[in-house]
Write a structure and sequence with these properties.
single chain; 509 residues; alpha/beta; Rossmann fold; DNA polymerase, domain 1; four-stranded parallel beta sheet; 21 helices; binds cytidine-5'-triphosphate; binds manganese (II) ion
Length: 509
């Protein structure tokens, strides 16, 4: 029988290291840096001598020569941080510094005896930080990576693009609407005014059609295409109808098809209106005059008083455009919660009934919370593009004479059709959205209801495509790990997503 013991091969002694490893290095354009974090000092020493024996040059983190950073078990962000902490001035989160690589690239290169081609699977992902891109004069592709203040510097161009975006929406073309909205949103984030079409070549999300419109506006002061849209009967009529609360693209389009053109037409032809639309028509003028911040604050106070009666300790937070610093808005968005989870259940209907009984409401429509973490978490989030909190869309009566909200019965004259502007009577109709969130979902609800819509859309898109996670106004879900990530603040949600925190005032995308 043959012996089971393998014959011991004579081991070649490792060639002695040259005094200066660089003298021995044969890949002159490659300099490795091994990240000690998680790798540990002894393994690092072992891998270093292995690499040097194979002819690779290995340098410290602070060397300017490093071309390939190799790490084991760290995320891209951790590697960037470690490198910076260890004196590197060349790592660059935006991607132009040394390559940040997983140990798999190193192992493959060692077996190949030469540096193998870098493939995407070797590369560590690094969140692209707003500051980094700004410093390089680059504009990030997602609105949630950009800072967009309220006042921007490209009014004419943005208005032109938003007009064609709106027109696309009226035509039912969501893709074109998105493309133009995104282009407009990029321009809103620019800290300078665009003067020549050459300045847009480095910008993301500007398609051929947007580029053409921008060029026309820059060269001629206006775009013929945009002007045609603005003049068109269809565009004007759709816009007019959609200013009625309760009327969306579908209804407005239907009325246009039926030959209706004006609000008097709706009355003349006895067009069927639902309750929301009737209220919308009745208060058309008020609801289309901007809500001022002082008015929004008066409503916050009134709602807080109502909430305090039923649930002391509950908070009312002003969200939406006002939280982003807008001086006025089309409505008031309020988010209600209570620090003891569960206490908030049933609160909204009590508050709304009370407000109604006191004459504060001209219209309301409630919807109960339908969000639950079902047994299958995928199911509980799949349909949640629109959130499912307890919610009330309402029209408040804001009373000027009494310095607060409240309908004064003597002044309340539901005039036939369009009533006079409320302020002639000392009151004004104001749209208010009330939302109640359980405490554990509050940060997600706050982030989701602060907007802007472009910012929200890109947050979700970024989560899905760049992080493989699902974000909505309730939660952040990781389908691969099958976990819900918790967050006690908006900052924590940005952290989970590897994004720099963008304060509400800079979310006006
Ligand atoms: N929102 C929502 N579901 C709705 C309506 C709005 O989740 N059915 C969210 C939007 O995503 C947005 C926020 O609520 O982030 C505010 O929406 P809205 O009041 O329409 O817009 P504002 O940004 O507040 O603008 P405005 O000042 O004109 O009210
Ligand atoms: Mn709003
Ligand atoms: Mn709203």
């Amino acid at each position: 029988m043959m012996s089971q013991i393998p014959v011991k091969k004579k081991r070649q002694p490792a060639p002695p290291l040259p005094a200066n490893p660089e003298d021995h290095a044969c890949f002159s354009d490659v300099a490795l840096c091994l990240v000690e974090k998680r790798m540990g000092a002894s393994r690092k020493a072992f891998l270093t001598s292995l690499a040097q024996r194979k002819g690779f040059c290995v340098e410290g983190a602070n060397s300017e020569r490093v071309t390939h950073v190799v790490s084991e078990g760290n995320s891209g962000d951790e590697v960037v941080e470690w490198m910076k902490r260890n004196g590197s001035r060349s790592v660059d989160a935006a991607g132009s510094g040394p390559a940040l690589l997983d140990i798999s690239w190193f192992t493959e290169s060692m077996s190949a005896g030469q540096p193998v081609e870098i493939e995407p699977r070797h590369c560590l992902r690094v969140a692209v930080h707003a500051e980094t891109l700004e410093a390089r004069g680059q504009v990030a592709a997602y609105a949630c990576q950009r800072r967009t203040p309220l006042a921007h510097k490209n009014q004419l161009l943005v208005e032109a693009l938003e007009t064609v975006a709106e027109e696309a929406l009226f035509c039912g073309s969501e893709a074109r609407n998105l493309a133009f909205s995104r282009a407009a949103s990029v321009l809103k984030s620019l800290p300078w005014t665009i003067r020549g079409v050459n300045e847009i070549s480095s910008l993301p999300c500007i398609g051929e059609h947007s580029r053409k419109i921008i060029q026309e506006v820059l060269e001629d002061g206006a775009s013929a295409e945009v002007e045609n849209v603005r003049q068109s009967e269809r565009y004007q009529t759709m816009k007019h109808f959609m200013k009625i609360f309760g009327v969306g693209v579908k209804t407005a389009g239907q009325w246009y098809q039926e030959g209706l053109r004006t609000i008097s037409d709706l009355q003349a032809y006895h067009t069927k209106l639902n309750n929301a639309q009737q209220a919308g028509l009745l208060h058309y003028r008020d609801l289309n005059s901007p809500v001022k911040r002082s008015e929004a604050e008066a409503i916050v106070q009134e709602v807080q008083k109502a909430v305090d009666q039923f649930l002391p300790g509950a908070s009312v937070t002003l969200t939406g455009g006002f939280r982003r610093g807008k001086p006025s808005g089309h409505d008031v968005d309020l988010l209600i919660t209570h620090p003891t989870e569960g206490q908030e259940v049933g609160l909204l209907s009590k508050v709304v009934s009370w407000l109604d009984s006191q004459g504060f409401l001209l219209y309301h429509s409630n919807r109960r919370n339908t969000f639950q973490v079902l047994e299958d978490p995928e199911l509980s989030i799949s349909t949640a593009t629109m959130d499912r909190f307890d919610r009330c869309f309402s029209i408040f009566c804001l009373n000027y004479l009494h310095g607060s909200v409240k309908r004064d019965s003597s002044a309340w004259e539901p005039a036939c059709g369009l009533k006079d502007s409320g302020d002639a009577h000392g009151w004004k109709a104001v749209r208010v959205d009330l939302v109640v969130a359980p405490y554990s979902q509050f940060s997600f609800a706050l982030l989701g209801w602060t907007g802007s819509r472009n910012f929200e859309r890109d947050l979700r898109r970024f989560s899905k495509h760049e992080k493989k996670m699902v974000l909505n106004s309730h939660t952040l879900y990781h389908p691969e790990k099958k976990i819900f990530l918790t967050a006690a603040s908006e900052e924590e949600i940005f952290q989970h997503l590897g994004l720099d925190f963008i304060p509400p005032e800079e979310r006006n995308a």
